[in-house]
Design goal:
Blueprint lengths: L13 H12 L5 H8 L3 H14 L18 E9 L4 H12 L4 E6 L6 E7 L2 H12 L5 E8 L14
Antiparallel strand pairs: 1-3, 1-4, 2-3
Amino acid sequence: MNKKENFLPLKLDTTDKRLLELLQQDSNIGIKELAKRLNLTKTPIYERVKRYLKDGIIKKYVAVLDTQKVKGSMFVFCSVSLENQKLEGIEKFKKAVEDIPEVIECYLMGGVNDFLLKVVVEDLQSYHLFSSGKLAALPNVSQIKSTFVLEEVKRSTVVPLF
């Protein structure tokens, strides 16, 4: 399978969509309960979930933390502009960002800035050390603009399935 084929969206039927919605809401829900809610037997539910894992539709199961209950969770969005937008420079930046634990999300953007990063640090001093010591030192970085989160209004891991 070539690299491009990995990104082809898979066709999902109504049952797939409902099952994935339920799993996104609570990945801890059991096969028996899923079967009951979808009015199916356990075997087809189990086979579908197994297929989602094999096909990479479900990448992994994780615990979602309540960040208000975890000390030292300051979130910052960083817009990063690169010195040049050559493919090699973009790839080096992407690879470098993968190894930085404070960066919890990273998106290649179209428009004014090249990347948008969601960063978590303990406090403002920690962010200063992160931005000047780690982020600014990455390959090809030209400019960093930071926006600080004052209040989390909505956060969801549920992707709507159309």
